[in-house]
Amino acid sequence: MIHADNLHKRFGSVEVLKGVSLSMQKGEVIAMIGPSGSGKSTFLRCLNHLELINRGQIAIEGEVMARTDEQGHCHYMPDADVRRICRKMGMVFQQFNLFPHLTVLQNIIEAPMTVKGIKRDEIIPKAEELLHKVGLAAKRDSYPARLSGGQKQRVAIARALAMEPDIMLFDEPTSALDPELTGEVLRTMRQLAEEHMTMLVVTHEMAFAREVASRVIFMDHGLILEERPAEELFADPQHPRTREFLRNML
Ligand SMILES: Nc1ncnc2c1ncn2[C@@H]1O[C@H](COP(=O)(O)OP(=O)(O)OP(=O)(O)O)[C@@H](O)[C@H]1O
Ligand SMILES: [Mg+2]
Prior knowledge:
Blueprint: E1 2-11, E2 14-24, E3 29-33, H1 40-47, E4 55-60, E5 63-68, E6 74-76, H2 79-86, E7 89-92, H3 104-114, H4 120-133, H5 149-161, E8 167-171, H6 179-194, E9 198-202, H7 206-212, E10 215-220, E11 223-229, H8 230-235, H9 240-249
Parallel strand pairs: 3-9, 3-10, 7-8, 8-9
Antiparallel strand pairs: 1-2, 1-4, 4-5, 5-6, 10-11
Magnesium ion (MG) is lined by residues 40-41, 171-172.
């Protein structure tokens, strides 16, 4: 589903991704952990074209989005192709990013209508079904300001799902939430995982990573230092930096 090969990303003279590779199969749930500033968000943002890579290759569901030629020049496919490829991925951010001037329902139907051209009458039942799924049917006509953080994040998940992505990318979806609100968001994500959604989740929730992810990736200073089945990585981290990180987390 995702094939990222040797991704390099620089901001100015600072190399933030130093050759990151990841392959992900359909239905896999991968948790990405690592210290602040290690490049986790940048990696996710490169996958769905919110940042441009300087070198490497990205292919989504077998379609190349960016590749690097023998001279080391990185090329992106034409815009229309990149947009189409990126639509296979939904993204959920730490800060929800809901439209404040739109109701919950309007937030969900906006992109399917404007980006995909789906008719209002057609998308509304689907949006209502998604709201039901995330436990927010009653909030259909509320504005985001009236919702708790956990509710906002569940709307953000429903909104991403409304585009019918094949892959969901999550960037610390519970980090902005009070501890008592993280559970409801993690439950929604767990449910998605049980439905075999392909998910790449940057998280500090070690329990979630351990229980839901099939593989865990430890990233540090722009490199993947360890990538193992969840139970193995937590029980017996191999890299000293992974060990140190986990010691500080638990
Ligand atoms: N737009 C940008 N311009 C310049 N530097 C950036 C930009 N975005 C990120 N960086 C830098 O890249 C490095 C990696 O940042 P990134 O946000 O990917 O880390 P992270 O692993 O997601 O950290 P956190 O756990 O705190 O979210 C940091 O040093 C950061 O300051
Ligand atoms: Mg981040």
